[in-house]
Amino acid sequence: MARKQARRRKPKQAPKFAMPKLSISRLITPVIAVIIIVVTYDMSTRLLDSDIESIAVNGPFQRVTALQIEEAVSEELDAGFLGADLGHMQQLIQQLAWIDQAAVARRWPSRIAITVTEQVPAATWGEGGLLNVRGELFVSDARHIPAELPRLSGPENRSADVARSYLSVRDRLIPIGLDVRRVHLDPRGAWEMTLANGVEVRLGRRDVGQRTDLFIAVVANVITGRAEDIAYIDMRYSNGFTIGWKDGANTPITNPENAAREMLALQGAQ
């Protein structure tokens, strides 16, 4: 009997993955376009760029001259009108000792406009330093110290703290007819100030804010009428303060709650 021959099954072949065909032109075209844009931009910049023909410097000059400002930015002038780094020029100008703020702008076709604001000294710091209206030390060795400026002193790293305290107290004293001439913070953290009328106020290290409030609320009103007789006010007590008279006598005020009444009585007795 004839045996039927079994048919062999052909093994399945894995599907073939064909790489997508990319046209070389499709790859080259974007690259060429980018190159054209870059070259065009570079050529346009070179064609449009020109030498800086003039510099206009504006500002209320008292301590700095226009020539000093031009010299400060001279290294950027050779870069051309478009090539000059305005941000760097601004930094160079603000590095000058008496410059507070600076603005630099291009003025077509070849002019650079510079506007500056000078620092305004509000107080001295130590022997030769000057603080601006924000309490920032902007000159550490000034040759000339204006005599009318208040004098602040203390540890090197505390200039901003002393300046803030001075400005705060000054703003509260001026409405009652007093002003601050000197503020000092010693290395141990003790505060003292001298008023424009010569009276020294000792605040110490502890509860300085409360002592200052008590001084302004109670003592300051009496000082306005007795400054010629008072040498100092010592606020370094937990139960009051002491008035030191120029004749050497001391008057303690021992009850802070009735301090206003005691001061009025003292004022009437003198």
How would you characterize the overall build of this protein?
By secondary structure, this protein is an alpha/beta fold. The chain folds into 2 domains: 54-118, Ubiquitin-like (UB roll); 121-269, Rossmann fold (3-Layer(aba) Sandwich), CATH 3.40.50. 33% of the residues lie in helices and 26% in strands. The protein is built from 7 helices and 13 strands. A 10-stranded mixed sheet has the order 6-5-4-7-8-9-10-11-12-13, covered by helices on one side. The chain has a 3-stranded mixed sheet with strand order 1-3-2, with helices on one face. α5 links the parallel β7 (151-153) and β8 (180-185). α6 packs parallel to α7. The radius of gyration is 38 Å and the shape is elongated. The N and C termini lie far apart (152 Å).
Helix content: 25-40%
Round the Cα radius of gyration to an integer and report it: 38 Å
Architecture of the largest domain in CATH? 3-Layer(aba) Sandwich
* CATH homologous superfamily designation of the largest domain: Cell division protein FtsQ/DivIB
Number of helices: 7
List the helices and strands and how they pair.
Elements: H1 24-48, E1 54-58, H2 66-72, H3 74-77, H4 86-94, E2 99-107, E3 111-118, E4 121-125, E5 129-132, E6 137-139, E7 151-153, H5 159-173, E8 180-185, E9 191-195, E10 200-204, H6 208-226, E11 230-237, E12 240-245, E13 250-253, H7 259-269
Parallel strand pairs: 1-3, 4-7, 7-8, 10-11
Antiparallel strand pairs: 2-3, 4-5, 5-6, 8-9, 9-10, 11-12, 12-13
Helix pairs in contact: 6-7
